Amino acid sequence: xxxxxxxxxxxxxxxxxxxxxxxxxxxxxxxxxxxxxxxxxxxxxxxxxxxxxxxxxxxxxxxxxxxxxxxxxxxxxxxxxxxxxxxxxxxxxxxxxxxxxxxxxxxxxxxxxxxxxxxxxxxxxxxxxx
Amino acid sequence: xxxxxxxxxxxxxxxxxxxxxxxxxxxxxxxxxxxxxxxxxxxxxxxxxxxxxxxxxxxxxxxxxxxxxxxxxxxxxxxxxxxxxxxxxxxxxxxxxxxxxxxxxxxxxxxxxxxxxxxxxxxxxxxxxxxxxxxxxxxxxxxxxxxxxxxxxxxxxxxxxxxxxxxxxxxxxxxxxxxxxxxxxxxxxxxxxxxxxxxxxxxxxxxxxxxxxxxxxxxxxxxxxxxxxxxxxxxxxxxxxxxxxxxxxxxxxxxxxxxxxxxxxxxxxxxxxxxxxxxxxxxxxxxxxxxxxxxxxxxxxxxxxxxxxxxxxxxxxxxxxxxxxxxxxxxxxxxxxxxxxxxxxxxxxxxxxxxxxxxxxxxxxxxxxxxxxxxxxxxxxxxxxxxxxxxxxxxxxxxxxxxxxxxxxxxxxxxxxxxxxxxxxxxxxxxxxxxxxxxxxxxxxxxxxxxxxxxxxxxxxxxxxxxxxxxxxxxxxxxxxxxxxxxxxxxxxxxxxxxxxxxxxxx
Lengths: 130, 507
Description:
The complex is a heterodimer of chains A (130) and B (507). Chain A has 130 residues and is an alpha/beta fold. Chain A is 21% helix and 34% strand. Chain A has helices spanning 13-26, 79-85, 121-126, and strands at 9-11, 29-33, 43-47, 58-64, 73-78, 88-96, 110-118. In chain A, β4 and β5 (73-78) form a beta hairpin. In chain B, α2 (78-94) packs antiparallel against α4 (111-135), α4 runs parallel beside α5 and α9 crosses α10 (312-326). The chains are: A alpha/beta (130), B alpha/beta (507).
């Protein structure tokens, strides 16, 4: 089974709707998963290209296809952090709240949030994790 | 026992205005775009005041005020600056109870902590920098008999500071005191979850500083923090928060070629060796409290000892004693001095913690105590409370590797010192750590072996000024809480002076 069919990251309908609204305001977007203090462990959403990713320091986990958007929204994580996260599948969701950091959704009174589940055997095999 | 009245209520020590503008140039000013946002108390989940929603225009106004004030403040004598910092400390101390109540209402933490830790530490921090400033010396070096190199400390000018929400006043003071002592003017952006208590502090001390030396602009990160962090008009940016924003701030700083200091959190190990349980004495009791320290400030501390490593040979006895101690944590109204643990700072923080309780269970970690949201009675039912939680599992699990920033402890065992060190260092971060043992040599070896900026040895969660605080690895850059932070807010000026009348002879 190819890894194109199985994703490492997905999004909820609410997150997709929010991405459509935010894209209308900010243009194409990207995610970079944070770690550490305060709002660490939250996915940060920026205008595409605002955050410099690196081929060595980051992993591109996937592209989130959002109906109604021309381009999918790429999802990145630091390579070191990915080593500790790679056995889990991530879903971008939205909750009421107010994140700090420079993530573009904060003024909307909502916050992107990661929900996680363990990968299935098929997923682990597809991503070469067994 | 005292239960403080909620700020804004008739009996409260703390007045609440309907709205708070920015504090710029010594004045309270409305946001230029006329937008405001609600500030919510996590104690009851309800909004209680409105705060200016700042934008790039407000940041520019604050930078104008700061640039106007910086030259004179930078030239002020050390005695003068030191005196002002001491006056700030005195004013805070005289109003400590009210500030503590305001901080609890803002952040949700138990008032026993704000009364006995946050505010006393903040007061002392101003006094510390008022003191070490007077003791700081430049240097002179005799290069040869006619040539002398003089080194002077000079302020950077105008600096930007972005403050986290877990200790809104104390973390602001950790950054403000050294910056002001060193002679800089500051534009400070509080966290959008906790914008108000710092303004209560500004109400109290604003008149003590020359206008424009301290400027506070509130708002959302993308609208207000980014224009500050990316401004070519700041000479340095300081940030406490998470790694992605830390990288973004470094990226902006690289474009302006300015220095940064960053404090980005950790996943701190707290290591308990078998000799801790040799006796059931005062030290054993202290170690049990040390285990329970993960619940301080509801776990919303960058150095939260969120990984407990207990030696296998005492595990069966020590862990039940420790869990019993955790289960004695009294939750309730944060404004009650008997309450030990209060509310998480925001709804999204609560949601994030719950998502970790979920993945912890999925990964097969065993819940030894807690593990759920705690819905309190009456008016507090909509506050953001979580039961202190202990998971037993393996260091490879995500709950052992990510900063949950909640009252959640991940517990595992080790067989010997080498394995303890290996597990302790198997993390992306290196901010805090704890070692508990009656063996001084072992404490020393572990302390030097752990890759973290702070190793609490037979203690935890003490933050006295004059003990350097900062991270190894991905936990950041710089050392706060110590006179060495003055250097992070200063330039070094070298005058290389010749006292010889003779030409060098090249031309």
